[in-house]
Every structure is written in structure tokens, then in C-alpha cells.
Amino acid sequence: MSGWRAWLDTLLSRIGRPVPRDASGRRLRKPFVHRYGRYTSLQFTRRQTQSRMLSAEPDLLLIDYTRTMMGALLWQPRPRTIGLVGLGGGSQVKFCHRHLPQARIEVVENNPHVIALRREFGIPDDDGRLQVVLDDGARFLHARRGRFDLLLVDGYDETGIPPALSTQQFYDDCRAALAPAGVVAVNLFCADAERHFERLRHAFGADGALMVGEAKMSNRVAFAWDGGSAAATADPPVALEPLPAEARRQLAPVFERVAQAIRARAAP
User: Fold this and answer.
1) pTM of the entire predicted model
2) Candidates 59, 154, 173, 226; catalytic one
């Protein structure tokens, strides 16, 4: 640890403020809000944007991969309980809270500095349907067996996917945290996406996982589901029907693209 960080940690401990750290003991970095033009972003450094929203439309899924992750609704169109690993600017939290009123939403975020900025991004306060928990994402999932119909994993820090969210145990816990017929979507923005996907396949089986690329981004989104035959029921019109018009507008192209990937995977 550098001298100034050791000094800061000592100062914070003396005034009764514990130093936020991740599961490995590494000090968590404090993000900041950057506003420019029509946009508001959450950043850890000037060159690295963690989350971005349209300031006038905070519930819009602005970034392509966030819409692709919602393609998990093809497997589970009416989730009752949704889990999210990683809060960030809350793009998917806001979308789910607004457009899936039947669902209870549980979010885990390990960085208290990120949670402290939730109102800057229009994330609703906790209520009967929404709870944001400060905890390590891996520990949070391990304690919630059979809980989620829909699980969205998008946990990143300034270095990428944290080690605690990269292990085989974590992906095994993703499966264990799903309710029957549940589905998980994982954002993979990393150089070793194939290794993450193999761990997901190991947890769910070769017939229970699918990875979809992003045409305009380096992200890939991996889906995995409980039950090898669940993919055969993926049907965009059926999955879109329960959603309000605005949500259908945002997700219709994504649902068709993911459904095409499912059909191509199933083809002989």
C-alpha cells in the first residue's frame, strides 16, 4: 500500500469511518459523476465510463449490451423475483422497476460510494419492491439458494470483472440462486470471455448456455438457464406481450436477435 493510502486509511479509522474494501481486501475506489451534453455518466477515471444515461430519460436502456441482457426475458417473461449483481448507474434496475411491476428486485453492490450516487442517476429509493444491499456479490448469491427467476450479473470495478465474480464457485452459485426455470444473463466485457463462458457451461451444462456478441461493442452477453429444454420455448411475441409499449419498443429488436441465436444453435 502506498504511503498516502496508508495515511488515509489510518485517518478514516481514527474518525470511525471504515475503509471500503472488496472481498480480496483491496480498497474500493470512489467514482464520480460526469455530465456532458445530454448525458450523465458514472466514472472511476476520466477515460473509463462505467455507466451512462440520457439525463432527460433516466429509465432508457441507452447502452446496447444492457438491452441484450434483458433478452433473458425470452426464457422468463414474467419474473417474480429479479436479482442484480452490480448497481452502477442502475440502468437495468430502473428499467425493471418501471416496466416489470410484478417483480421484486434485489440488487447487491459492494462499493458504498456507488450506492451513495444512486439519486444522481434517478435510481428509486428502496421500497416494497426494490432493495439495494451493500455486500460482496459472491457472498450475496451464495446465501440465496433458489431465489431468482431472473438474475443479471454486471459487476465491474475500474479494473474489470472482480476476481470474486470470476470463479467456478461463483458461476455454480449463480445456478444455485435460480428458482426453477430461472435464467441468468452475464455481461462479459473482458479479454477472457471464453473462459468465463466455459465456467458458465460447466455450471449449467453445454445445453444450458448461450453467448451472444454485440455488433457495435466489445461486450458479449452470456445466457444460462435452468433446464436444458427451456430455450426451445423462446418466442419474441410471447415474451414481449406482458411488457408496456415503451419496453416493447426498446426490446423487440434484441428479442429477435437473441431468438435467432437460439434457433441457430439448435439447428442441426
Assistant:
1) 0.89
2) 154
